[in-house]
């Protein structure tokens, strides 16, 4: 138990999780780290299983992860340091004991930095291995959504990444020392912005999971992810009380980056949908992309069952399925309609 329980008075709920899950040789193992690790493992499992659907070998995707993950961690820290220099700068009055840049275990990482690092690494990896970068990012985008959805619950355990004060029915009550530069030092009800982002990314994952096998061009899912997450982050960041700012301005860097990236992604989506012609062969799964005599891509019965269930729900149920069956029977052998 802690001295800072988390309440949802409008919902009649209260939680009091300790940030430390357990200790090993006297050192605390924090829930935040455990949750981040679980989110990464689930994201990696999903993306590796889905990689053949976009024409990427599982081994290649795993190799890309081995390079991208450590670089993403480093970039997440660099991003945080750049836009929060005062925390790392000595000042005898306001900051006599500045945090060291390498002391990442004391907190201070930023998801946008991690995304930038991962994307740059994936681009270089694909150029070296002669892989289709846009296809790899299509499936990687879904992994990012899984990680962001689950990882935000580490902020819940730490009582951080919350928003401004509110009286909405789903308000969260916690002890707050500061809101911006204002000293609070009391329990207040605030926006649970960690929850907003978790739900936003969950909805994004459910939508883009369906788009992955219906995309019209490689890179579509990644661009939709950038637009979806950028819009949500831009809106939610406006409620946050712990934002990183664009140097000495009043602009929240993640809000600016969110809205700008959303606009750029939407523009690229429209351009690709309306003005570019794409080769359908680029969308073929791994086995099909390698030719008719190649081994089929690894199948995943759970994935196929999920896709079929979604197809039936989206396409009108048994009647529509029957129509598709008739079309397949009428098609020439080996053809695709």
Number of domains: 1
Largest sheet composition: 2 strands, antiparallel
Distance between the termini: 61 Å
Portion of residues within helices: 40-55%
Mean pLDDT: 86
What value does the Rg take, in angstroms?
23 Å
Q: Name the helix and strand elements from N-terminus to C-terminus, one letter apiece.
A: EEEEHHHHEEHHHHHH
> How many H/I helices?
10
Shape: globular
User: Structural class, please?
Assistant: mainly alpha
Oligomer category:
single chain
If strands are numbered along the chain, what order do they take across the biggest sheet?
Answer: 1-2
The count of β-strands is 6
Low-confidence stretches: 289-299, 316-337
* Beta-strand content bin: 5-15%
Observed structural traits:
337 residues; mainly alpha; two-stranded antiparallel sheet; 54% helix; globular; disordered C terminus
Structure description:
The chain has 337 residues and is mainly alpha-helical. It has one domain. It is 54% helix and 9% strand. The protein contains ten helices and six strands, in the order E-E-E-E-H-H-H-H-E-E-H-H-H-H-H-H. The chain has a two-stranded antiparallel ribbon. A two-stranded antiparallel ribbon has the order 3-4. Helix 1 runs antiparallel to helix 4, helix 3 runs antiparallel to helix 4 and helix 4 packs antiparallel against helix 5. The longest helix has 26 residues. It is globular. It starts with 5 loop residues before the first strand and ends in a 7-residue tail after the last helix. The C terminus is likely disordered.
